[in-house]
Amino acid sequence: MGTSKVSFVIVQLFAFFTWHAIAQEYVRMASNTNAAEAMQFLREYDREASGMCYRVTMSQWRFVTNITEYNRRRMLEELALNSKFERLSWRKAAAYDATRVSDVQSRRQLVKIVQGSRAALPEDKFNEIQQIITEMKEIYNAAKICPYGQKPYDSHLQRDSPFYPQSRQEPYDQTRSHTQDIYQPFGPGFPHETPENSNYCDMQLDPEISRILAHSRIESELVYVWKSFREQTGPKMKNRFMRYVQLANQAAVSTGYSDAGDQMRASYEDPSFRASLEEIYNQVAPLYKQLFTYVRRKLIQRYGERVVRPDGPIPAHLLGNMWAQNWKSIMDLVMPFPQAPNIDVTSEMLRQGFTPLRMFQMAEEFYTSMGMKPAPPEFWRGSMLARPAERSVQCTASAWDFCNRIDYRIKQCTEVTMQDLVSTHHEMAHIQYYLQYAEQPQLFRDGANPAFHEAVANAVTLSVYNIQHLQRVGLYNNRTHDPYQVSMNFLMTMALEKVAYLPFAFMVDQWRWSVFEDGVQNMNSRWWQMKLRFQGVIPPMQRTEADFDPGSKYHVISDQEYIKYFLGTVLEFQLYEQLCQAAGQAGHLHECDVYRSRDAGRLLSEIMQPGASKTASEIIRTMTRGRTNRISPESLVRYFRPLELWLRVQNRDEPLIGWSSNYQDIGLFAPQRGHGIKATYSMVLLVLSMMQFLFL
Ligand SMILES: *[C@@H]1O[C@H](CO)[C@@H](O)[C@H](O)[C@H]1NC(C)=O
Ligand SMILES: *[C@@H]1O[C@H](CO)[C@@H](O)[C@H](O)[C@H]1NC(C)=O
Ligand SMILES: *[C@@H]1O[C@H](CO)[C@@H](O)[C@H](O)[C@H]1NC(C)=O
Ligand SMILES: [Zn+2]
Predict the structure, then answer these.
(1) Among 228, 275, 313, 404, whose CB has the most other CB atoms within 10 angstroms?
(2) Which cysteines bridge via disulfide bonds (predicted)?
């Protein structure tokens, strides 16, 4: 999603190009057939929307780089104005019959304004759903738990006061997001009155709880934080979430979709979208199962068969992450060659006297070396490249487009580490994207679909976090170690982050769409059913419908679609391989570096320049020189091929590649409707439905 322009993106998000899906209600409105008037409206819209976007973005920038109550109020005022503007523009745009507009680009813009929005709701309901989402975010951001092994103190101190430090960043997925969650009312370090004893039950997801999950190897402690965080989030939001589902569906139906999931999927402009996703999942599942099986063996060595069954699913609290979505923190347990190093050039950077500024200059040079654009002077004047000493700021790295074709900035509390060097190149890729599509109209200054921005930025970082590249820029030297062992360790690190993530990134919206489509009954049980089916994980203790475990994931309760992360991760490797081919690199994919390749730079510019003015499938067709118009996981599978071969050897004596689930696994979350026959019956149905997954 496009950064700071989030509220604009809301209108852009779900646009769908074909008109046949639109319901009568909306078609009845779209009665103005005067194409010239429609074009005139779009010209005015472009000017006003850019101006509005500039003011909102600037107010957000001022707040997140200087967190004061005054700046927060200013930002909320701008957001309210923006919300009004959105509703007004929606009404105007919806009055035109876009089918009468012959110019394809204008038609596409009209569709973008109308179809992603919830502005079809009556005003009170439009405000209500926004209010509900804000409340859920506040509850989430206020969640705190007591330290392990200590009793909770008086609960009146754990109040959800609006002035309580709402100091959570949006948990980032894969690499850091370039998006700003503009509705997030507070940032870290927001001035607050600290209740006495505050250090007692004051552990937040970020950083304390996440740190425990990443580094603790005491099983009972992992169980404790896993469970406690879920107690402090889901159940408090469940009722609000059910109302949110109702309103989102109502908005979708009034806009011409069958439900809110249908509306979310429309932005991908693919009539067989769900089938395409399923196909991609099935293509990566064999690789995932090899990784899964190897990791399960290592977890058994650490925790024993009492905790992990040799052919069973993995309990979700053992994988180093609250949602079992990124396993890189358990690298110490699964490292292929512990005697060979993990690549980390941090100490070399320090030895060479790197500074944050030098890291950004190096990232800029990466793009100019490929013949792409340098960052403009405004970038160097306006950006926040390191944490300022004198004021409190929100530190999540992000890249900003101020919608005026002049001002682009990055906010990052850069430290001299390899991770931040990679992140710097990633954020600079977003800036490059902004610069490349700057001449497009406002509505098209975005990725071709919601997956594109992150995918492009991550594709570039594959070329930076890369043994060859780090050697070329003089930060890594391989003299002392076996290159095969170094490569396997490297690929394992990448797999724990990317391959382990795919089933999770796939299942979140499968679940969400099923709730929009089939209703809110047994939401928690369905969540775990999908976790088990796609990820092969089970909860470490009994779950019921009084729990609401999806509510422990920020993107679920904050109304942010998730499938873009799944597609983005797949697309990232596909883009990367195309760039590598353009650069004429024929070796192992994980060793390809496109630095200094003018041909790769030309291709990347071609991908970026159209922004959202073309469909993703058109851009993929261009990028693959006509070979395909589909997102495909073949490149990802190829990238990990050497590791997969190694894993197959490690797993040769395993009883089962993948997992089989038994009655007990399913009993952990089967719905307990009533007693006796009814419950047994639904249990049997569930077991039967799980069985079929085993034989897929
Ligand atoms: C931070 O914001 C306040 C307004 O609340 C303003 O007076 C101050 O000058 C700002 N500081 C910086 C460094 O921009
Ligand atoms: C991809 O191209 C095929 C024809 O080769 C077409 O039928 C299909 O609709 C295109 N897919 C998308 C998503 O546009
Ligand atoms: C170091 O890297 C170079 C270039 O990648 C390679 O040719 C060489 O064999 C490596 N040396 C060792 C000892 O691994
Ligand atoms: Zn990003």
Answers:
(1) 313
(2) 395-413
* C-alpha–C-alpha distance, residues 190 and 75, integer Å: 15
In this structure, the residue with its CA closest to atom 10 of ligand 3 is 478
Q: What is the pLDDT of residues 539-557, one digit of tens each?
A: 999 999 999 999 999 999 9
Half-sphere exposure for 91 (CA within 13 Å, toward CB): 8
Within a 13 Å sphere around the CA of 65, how many CA atoms are in the beta-carbon half? 21
Percentage of the residues of the chain whose pLDDT score is greater than 70: 85
What Å distances lie between residue 65 and 71, 184, 322, 387, CA to CA? 10, 14, 28, 9
Which helix H or strand E contains 537, and what residues bound it? strand 537-538
Ligand nearest to the CA of 425: 4
Q: Report which bound ligand comes closest to the CA of 68.
A: 1
Phi and psi angles of residue 599, each rounded to the nearest 5 degrees, phi first = -65, -40
Which tens digits make up the pLDDT trace of 412-471? 999 999 999 999 999 999 999 999 999 999 999 999 999 999 999 999 999 999 999 999
**33-83 pLDDT, tens digit each:** 788 888 999 999 999 999 999 999 999 999 999 999 999 999 999 999 999
Q: Which residue's CA is minimally distant from atom 12 of ligand 1? A: 66
Token pair for residue 192? 């607050």
Residue pair 530/273 in contact by the 8 Å Cβ criterion: no
Residues paired with residue 411 on neighbouring β-strands, in sequence order: 384, 398
Distance 386 CA to ligand 1 centre (A): 17
**Which residue has the least CA distance to atom 3 on ligand 3?**
478
Ligand 3 atom nearest the C-alpha of 482 is 14
Q: Which ligand minimizes its atom distance to the CA of 17?
A: 2
User: How many whole angstroms from its chain centre is CA 341?
Assistant: 30
The pLDDT score that the predictor gives to residue 680 is 60
What are all long-range contacts of 608-611, with beta carbons under 8 Å and residues at least 24 apart? 608/432, 608/433, 608/436, 608/437, 608/456, 609/436, 609/437, 610/437, 610/440, 610/444, 610/448, 611/436, 611/437, 611/440, 611/444, 611/445, 611/446, 611/447, 611/448
Name the 3-class secondary structure at 409: strand
Taking the CA of 16 as reference, the closest ligand is: 2
More confident residue, 198 or 341: 341
Q: What is the mean pLDDT of residues 295-311?
A: 96
Ligand 1 centroid distance, CA of 394 (Å): 15
Closest ligand 1 atom to residue 71 Cα is 5
Q: Are 593 and 421 in contact (CB under 8 A)?
A: no
- The closest residue, in CA terms, to atom 14 on ligand 2 is 617
Ligand 3 binding residues, C-beta < 6 A: 478-479, 483
138-174 pLDDT, tens per residue? Answer: 999 889 999 888 654 433 333 333 322 233 333 344 3
Rounded to the nearest whole angstrom, what is the distance from the C-alpha of residue 580 to the centroid of ligand 3? Answer: 20
Q: Compute, in angstroms, the gap from residue 481 CA to the centroid of ligand 3.
A: 9
Q: Looking at the DSSP assignment, which residues form a beta bridge with residue 32?
A: 96
